[in-house]
Amino acid sequence: MSNDERVWEGGCFCGAVRYRIRGPEKFVAHDHCSMCRRIAGAAYVTWVGVPEPGFELVRGHDALTTFASSAEATRQFCARCGSHLFFRSERWPGEAHVTMASLDDPEGLTPKAHVFASDAVSWIRLDDGLPRFGGESGVEHEAP
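Below the sequence we write its predicted structure tokens.
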């Protein structure tokens, strides 16, 4: 089955929030931006982007809290367990971004790039052969 037909399900740690995404995915990327790192408490966050119609919140709307992380973007978390789940931005209208780690089984989704690589922490090695993008926009092509 191609990813155009695939469906992935995921949710928060406590199970209060459940969602479903449908392929085709727009991108799968490791994001090294400082905001993602701080919010996730991790060296980077791997995001899966899908067209908004491919995103479905199955349950837990009342458990979601929305945080404006910038003037253009919001992030959503489970208010009960704190799981970082979703990101939307005016920069990418019509897309829903979900944290790959919150998927039950991300089989078939493979990261294709590092974005905001110029913000990566020095102790992370980016020698996996994936293209790197960075600069001020976070998506300008960088030399390996």
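The helical segments are 34-40.
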